Every structure is written in structure tokens, then in C-alpha cells.
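Residues determine shape. We examine one folded chain.
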Amino acid sequence: MATRFDPFLEIDRLFGQVLGAERASATMPMDLYRSGDHYVLHVDLPGADPGTIDVNVEDRILTIRAQRSARTDQDVQWLAKERPAGTYARQLTLGRGLALDAVSATYADGVLTLTIPVAEDAKPRRIDVQHAGDVTQITAEADATT
């Protein structure tokens, strides 16, 4: 029986074993959904110091930054250290039609929640259709002095 060897898959598997726990915990998992006239974004930031959380929007790019400080206890023998420390950042490209000047943010229980309203001009609206028989026709007369 012949086996196929793919060196790229093997390298990815090795990196996954070496960096698996650190890579998985170094991300900012998020949920995003639309509720009525706004979008809601929940970002997990467990252990982040609330004073280090920075959210900004520039040219439709939403950037979220947060920092988790490392424990600096002296005379400690670590048995497991899987919680990474440092600065985390995530960027999202936002679509048009959002009221970026009205974004609100709250942080509770390790979860950052952003509420992004839909802009007024992007909200769906009903357009009344008139029947052709109900429309009065307007004619323009040519100006005789020209």
C-alpha cells in the first residue's frame, strides 16, 4: 500500500503540537450578529485589564486592543503556564452603511460588547408606488423671450 507524504501538512501538524495551546488562547474569539437596527459584537477578553482595552475606528477599520499582564510572583515553580500575556489586537473591516460615530462599548465578565448602529440612510424604507392614472401630468411651456 502506497502512502502519500505532504511535507506542508507535516510541518503544520508539528507547529500545531508545539504551539497548539498558545495559539488557541492567543486569539480573540468573537460572535457577531444583527439585532434590529444595530449589529452586536461580543469579543472574549478574559483576564484583560479594563484600563488597557482600546477600541477605535479609522477609515472603516475597527481595531480592538487589550493587554493581559503576566504574573510576576517570585519564588514560584510553574507546573503549567498556558495563559499567554501581552497585547492582543484584532482588526475588522466594516461595511458601508454603519453609524460609526455612534458605536458603544461595554466590558463585563471578560467579554467586550460593541453595539454598532445601522446608519439612517442605510435602513430599508418603503417607497410608495403611484398608479399611472393617479399622476397629474405636468408640461412645461417654452419661454417666448429666448
